Amino acid sequence: MLLGLATPSILTIIAIIMIPLGWLFYLSFIGKGGEFSLENYQRMIEYKSYFRVYIITFEVSILTTLVCILIGYPLAYFLSQLPQRFAGFFMLTVLLPFWTSLLVRTYAWLVLLQKKGLLNEFAMQIGLWETPIKLVHNMTGTLIGMAHIMLPFLVLPLYGAMRRIEPEMMQAAANLGAKPVHAFWKIFFPMSLPGMVAGSLIVFVLCLGFYVTPAVLGGGRVVMVATQITAILENQFNWGAASALGVVLLLATLVILFIAGRILKLDNVLFGRS
Amino acid sequence: MSIHTFHIQRLQRNEETGSIYLKGKNNMKIIKRTAVALATTIFFATVASAADPITVVSWGGSYGKAQDSALFNDASKNSGIAINRESGASMSKACLQVESGAVTWDLVVTGSGSGAAAAAKGCLEKIDYGVVDVSDFYPNLYTDYCVGSDVFATVMAWNTDKYGEPGTPGAPNSWADFWDVKKFPGTRAYRANNVDGALEPALMADGVPPEKVYEVLATRAGKERAIRKIRELKPHISVFWGSGAQQAQLMKDAEVDMTTGWNGRFDNAKKDGAKVGYTFNQALLDYDCFAMPKGAPNKTTAMKFLAEVSKPEYQANLPFYITYGPTNKKAYEITTAPKALIESLPSHPKNVPLMLPVSLDFYAKNRTEAIELYMELMSE
User: A115-164, pLDDT tens digit by residue?
Assistant: First the structure.
């Protein structure tokens, strides 16, 4: 019965995930002439640009995740301490941008941050700085845009985890003589950790495949794997080379998640095992 | 068609017999039948509608709009061929459609270089020159697989508030000036992730005479020399542009002081109030063309439409909307555009000698290596 009910979804997963993935692996070993070949991988060693692109991709993803944690944790904490109905209202402010098109938000940041953008003009008018500051077409702009887009993915699981922490826990800690800061770090923070790790992982993994935001706000200087894949497809129609890039990104991600899993004991936090 | 009506009839019959299907097992049957009926309806609806209008794909921004106004709308009206206009033309997407056997595009705009590359990959239909009349075309502006639609130039453009109007003393006039950040201090923009038209300016700035550029670029050392020259400018390149629309936007917003780009985009940006000027001196002369993906759904109709838009009377209107030159000589004779406008077109005899014609042969042989080297530079 159980298997019967699960069959459609298992078949769907095989059809839409496993088969294309297998196809991707297969393509990456097909050379220009249509024969089996390692040329797509060889060229990733021959040219340094590929290695650098992976480094940039992981750098952007890690930094975005960190920015999201720095902004998202206090925000989720604030929301979780509010009475439910007020929390709902403030949650809306987090979710509203979530429902707006990613492209629109990215271009909105461009308009705000560029040389003659609103922010620079305003700051120069009130005398904060004299000449326009370069806020976009670089790493800074990319991180601002990506953190804004990714924030809800961190806040939602984190908020859920924090809501589940019973307020009595903190009161009990206070009763036993713990100062608020101490109680927070000893009780609240560890209990919120599963939510934070889950959220961070979602953010990190989603960032790895980002295309639009770094392409628009990076000004061509922040070349991530997705950008490189597009460039190869657009200019060379080389599916094998593009597939090889995807395969390496996938494997690198799996390795990183595996190591992170060992260090952070992901099994415990994600699946509640002890 | 018969399966389709059959299911509809069965469904109707069931509905007539009344309430049984609302309960129990029959419920499932009805859902299944409705789904099948729906699916067949959708299937036949798509097949039926695909037979009619042809799908013509161009680029966004002022380029696509200009083609609509000058070419597509009138040609469609006069030939009676209905068109379905899409944006986002790209040879890689066309090739993807061909390789996956799901071609929905009939005519696609492309740069001459990407068109040639796609043809070499076997993604394009041969043009039927028995239908499309190119007897009045300039030579070299059509190939077996691509019919020239307009002539454009890759130029250097700058903020006129900062560096002066083109042609005035002290204004930039060569690629050496583009590279000279002492004489022309400020920020630059340059092409991102695509090497087309990106290496030639660097060599000219490095002192290679235009007629020798492709000879030097044919060697690995020549390409590396060009890359080194761009690397030298890189600290001053604050944006790498990815599209024509972006070139125009960068100049409109005064985000950069000088950029490379396509001449028509800057004229239109100027019309919109941008302080921008450019020179044809040392620019790269190139053309766009119409290609047909292999296995296009409406091949015969699309070929007729291609014949229609290639007529001089439509091309003669193009300069009113974007300053790209006609590929059909006759268009120059019959156009009602004012003299000043005609003289501002890249393919005008007055301008052609100033420029370096882009070599399709060079790109056919060297593009892959050149892109790898350029991507090295981009990712640094």
Answer: 989 999 999 999 999 888 999 999 999 999 999 999 999 999 999 999 99
**ipTM score here?**
0.84
Is residue B33 within 8 A of residue B11, CB to CB? The reply is yes
pTM equals 0.83
Domain segments of chain A as ranges: 57-223
User: Strands, DSSP E only, in B251-365?
Assistant: 258-262, 276-291, 356-357
The whole-angstrom distance between B375's CA and the closest CA on chain A is 6
3-state secondary structure of B109: strand
A230 contacts on B by Cβ (under 8 Å): 193
User: Do the Cβ atoms of A90 and A82 come closer than 8 Å?
Assistant: yes
CB pairs A-B closer than 8 Å: 77
Contact B193 A220 (CB under 8 A): yes
Q: What is the dihedral of CA B248, B254, B257, B259, to 10 degrees?
A: -10
Q: Are β-strands B107-111 and B258-262 bridged in parallel, bridged antiparallel, or unpaired?
A: unpaired
Distance from CA of B317 to the nearest CA of A (A): 31
Q: Which residue of A has its CA nearest to B98?
A: A237
The CATH architecture of the domain made up of A57-223 is Orthogonal Bundle (1.10)
- Tell me if B240 and A219 make a contact (CB, 8 A cut-off): yes
Q: Which residues does B358 contact at the CB level (< 8 Å), separation at least 6?
A: B112, B113, B154, B197, B200, B284, B285, B286
Residues of chain B with Cβ-Cβ distance to A53 below 8 Å are 379
DSSP SS3 for B355 = coil
- In angstroms, rounded to a whole number, what is the distance separating the alpha carbons of residues A97 and B134? 53
Closest chain A residue to B372, measured at CA: A47
Q: Which residue in A137, A220, A233 is closest to B378 by CB distance?
A: A220
